[in-house]
Specification:
3 helices; mainly alpha; rod-shaped
Length: 106
């Protein structure tokens, strides 16, 4: 055997590598298209709306509970002030959420 000749044909190997690189580049482009955010403005608006709904719920329940506790503390009507004002806070929170959901998008 002759040690000067390579065991593989370099031309065939280069063609396979070029084909592999082309397939890899096409796969990367498809992956970038797939991971690209589809509706940036719409998703952002939905995120803001969700945060608003959460704030309404937490504010209504928490604010009602706090005000009810303050009324109970000073008036001595435990637990009725807390229950009544917290129920009122929950009612107002749901009313605001329903109002937000029926508004037309701008």
């Amino acid at each position: 055997m002759n040690d000067d000749q390579p065991a593989r044909d370099p031309v065939g190997e280069d063609a396979r590598i070029e084909a592999l690189e082309a397939r890899l580049k096409a796969a990367q482009e498809r992956e970038e298209q797939r991971n690209k955010p589809s509706g940036g403005a719409e998703a952002d608006a939905n995120y803001r709306m969700g945060n608003r709904v959460l704030a309404e719920l937490l504010g209504g329940i928490g604010g009602g509970a706090f005000l009810g506790w303050v009324i109970d503390h000073f008036a001595g009507t435990t637990p009725w002030g807390l229950l009544v004002v917290m129920s009122l806070g929950i009612f107002v929170a749901f009313r605001n959420i329903i109002r937000m959901s029926t508004q037309r998008p701008k």
